[in-house]
Design a protein that fits this description.
The chain is an alpha/beta fold. Helix 3 packs parallel to helix 4. It is globular and about 50 Å long. It starts with a strand and ends with a helix. A hairpin with a 2-residue loop joins strand 9 and strand 10. It is built from 5 helices and 11 strands.
Length: 199
Amino acid sequence: MEKLTFYYSAMKGGKTDALLQVAYNYEQNGMKVVVLKSSIDTKGKDCIVSRNGSKRKVDIILEPNERVISKKNSELLKDCNCILVDGAQFLTARQVEDLFMITKQISLPVICYGLKTNFKGELFEGSKRLIELADNIDELDMVPLCSCGQKARFNGRKENGVYTLSGDEVEIDGVYNNVEHVSLCSKCYYQKVFKKKLR
């Protein structure tokens, strides 16, 4: 039985770099990988893009109402050795369930990389379902740092340089010019973001 795995970290935690390395390792051994992401993730358009500039074309871009297991995707998944998912937090619960089903019925490993929580400290829909269904859930070893030097576990959002708890759940860096996401340790998240909720 193959496994559904979810690797998570805060922003700037090396998730895309890790995915690219896994893809490279499979392909160097003559195996086929399929890389997918949600259409909600507009960064890089039809590519996944690492913060260090590395990128790779995506095989499947899923619309929110699209199933992973579909006639359109069946040919791509044929003879595949592993499915790799970037930005897994943007998947719907149903799409995560499809991935879980693939690991159990087709016996194909699926490795997902994403954020656990949004800027409000709440689970994304895709991350929540992955935590409920994944066989393995691990925080990436590459630890993002908060500006204070501590391990970052939270994602804060600044709009026009000011931390906020309002706005749409998804606003991609670089797409919205006035939005910046910042990796924060729990203490800094509490002081700079969460305390606003208590006022």
